């Protein structure tokens, strides 16, 4: 039976996760990679490209992000990650599966902003009181990523 | 007079409706039409194209969605419905009018994702405890839909 | 120390601000400029273009919006402002800094909807009970605005 307390807790968590994602993705888009990595658990994993090995641990995630952005050194680009339609499903171990649409807007100087790419983000969130952390993030693409 | 209890109930409902929409539209975009139809009341109506007769009842909505998607059999396309700027207005009969921006991203293999189309969704929601159902959905377009 | 009451208040405020923005931006996009201006404090300021003087007071904001839209008299365009990734930071004076992604979809008849432009909105919000008002709004662009 779902009690009123449960559902209040549910909507509280929903807004908490929205705010968590907002801070997290503003940090990523502004290049604050340590802050982004700190939103993962110490042993968290992050796979941003299907078919590759995920980055592991906060230090590993920071290193991966620096390597990724190094590729765009001669082609400066601003990205904005728009998250939408967050679905939270509680799991047996107390964590939450979070399934989220992500529209990435890519902006290059002198070009029109464009959507590149359209993704679905699959997270596992652990919630301790009001602290949210990510145990894992896996990104799937609606089409294969390419330049 | 608006009491604190009222406004807490208001923000609780707001997050509840966001989560409801997230599940609903992920179901639609993944082709789970029965699950989408089940978000309507038994006698719910769904008009996705202005000037056409709305689909009526859950069974009618499922049939309509299958017919719509049949048209794209030879032209596979992935859609992602982004909902934003949800405005909820209570109505005299206890239901809520919900006015929502919808940006649909359309993805075809080998093409760039594009916005097609930009819509405003007009829903009537009935809320019983923490169950949300749609009595009706009418979609208006910022320009006429075309291929 | 953050108490449970604090964090419940935090997620309550988060949903309150989302709903506030939804009403505000639907008003702007539908050309209800007085309603948009009324979301500012009496002495509020609004700078929509970097490097220009901000509009001041509600009357000044209405006048500025009429002047801006006059420019599009011969080129009718529908805009939809999508807000996302809202980050709220409390300030010492009791107000909140709000940093928000804004994707503007521009729709012209006979053309595809396009993203123009991609922005970050920097607001200062004052909250009195459940009334939210804006003391200031400053918009930054990911690239320079142009036609």
UniProtKB/TrEMBL annotation, chains A, B, C:
Classification via Gene3D superfamilies: 3.10.450.50
**Highest taxon in the source lineage:** Bacteria
Q: Which residues form the SnoaL-like domain?
A: 15-137
Do you know which InterPro entries this protein is assigned to? NTF2-like_dom_sf (IPR032710), SnoaL-like (IPR037401)
Q: Which SUPFAM superfamilies match?
A: NTF2-like (SSF54427)
Indicate what this protein is called per its UniProt record: Nuclear transport factor 2 family protein
Organism, per UniProt? Streptomyces coeruleoprunus
The uppermost taxa in this organism's lineage are:
Bacteria, Bacillati, Actinomycetota, Actinomycetes, Kitasatosporales
């Amino acid at each position: 039976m779902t009690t009123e307390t449960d559902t209040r807790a549910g909507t509280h968590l929903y807004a908490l996760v929205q705010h968590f994602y907002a801070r997290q993705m503003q940090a990523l888009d502004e290049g604050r990679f340590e802050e982004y990595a700190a939103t993962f658990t110490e042993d968290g994993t992050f796979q941003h490209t299907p078919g590759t090995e995920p980055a592991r641990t906060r230090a590993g995630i920071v290193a991966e992000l620096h390597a990724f952005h190094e590729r765009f050194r001669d082609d400066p680009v601003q990205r904005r990650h728009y998250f939408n339609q967050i679905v939270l499903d509680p799991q047996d171990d107390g964590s939450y599966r979070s399934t989220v649409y992500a529209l990435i807007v890519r902006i290059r100087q002198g070009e029109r902003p464009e959507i590149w790419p359209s993704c679905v983000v699959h997270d596992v969130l652990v919630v301790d009181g009001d602290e949210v952390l990510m145990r894992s993030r896996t990104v799937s693409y609606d089409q294969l990523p390419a330049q």
